[in-house]
Specification:
The protein is an alpha+beta fold and 157 residues long. It has two domains: 41 residues, Orthogonal Bundle (Arc Repressor Mutant, subunit A); 80 residues, 2-Layer Sandwich (Alpha-Beta Plaits). The longest helix is centred in the first third of the chain and has 13 residues. 13% of the residues are buried.
């Protein structure tokens, strides 16, 4: 969901976001010290960024292999032309699936990319065959296995 607040971000907001994108667990005191503002100012700024939707959330980056999901893939999905009117429902349905880590709405030949993790190739095949290819809203899929995933450093400009 896009940010609700359309005001431009100033240098202090950008500094806060850069630091939080690398370490969301940083204390408010340390964040304020690194940005060069009072702790109360920093707390107010972070709260405003969160309430306006600029900061969308905080989460733990869990390795899927630790949960027994050793196989990751990116699945490109093309929707049927009639299903484009219900894209919100399609996204909600896909994002509720336990195999799905992320849903990306994209431009180009495909409508979505799904980042998925499963325990095996058999589970991946069942997910694609039983849940995606049987969905009347989905015109087709293309699956690419992920051999290795390296998260970017998370630095914002």
């Amino acid at each position: 969901m896009p940010p609700q607040d359309v005001r431009p971000l100033d240098d202090v907001d950008r500094a806060i976001l850069r630091i939080l994108s690398v370490d969301a667990r940083i204390s408010n005191k340390e964040l304020a010290d690194r940005v060069g503002v009072a702790q109360s100012t920093c707390l107010t700024r972070v709260r405003a960024l969160r309430e306006s939707g600029v900061i969308r959330g905080y989460h733990a980056d869990v390795d899927p292999r630790a949960l027994g999901h050793d196989l990751e893939a990116m699945i490109a999905i093309r929707l049927q032309p009639h299903a484009r009117a219900t894209m919100g429902e399609v996204i909600a349905t896909l994002s509720r699936r336990p195999e799905v880590l992320d849903v990306y709405f994209v431009a180009g030949a495909n409508d979505f990319l799904l980042h998925v993790a499963t325990a095996s190739t058999d589970e991946l095949r069942r997910f694609v065959g039983d849940h995606l290819n049987r969905d009347p809203a989905i015109a087709g899929t293309e699956t690419n296995l992920i051999f290795e995933h390296t998260r970017a450093a998370g630095r914002l400009r």
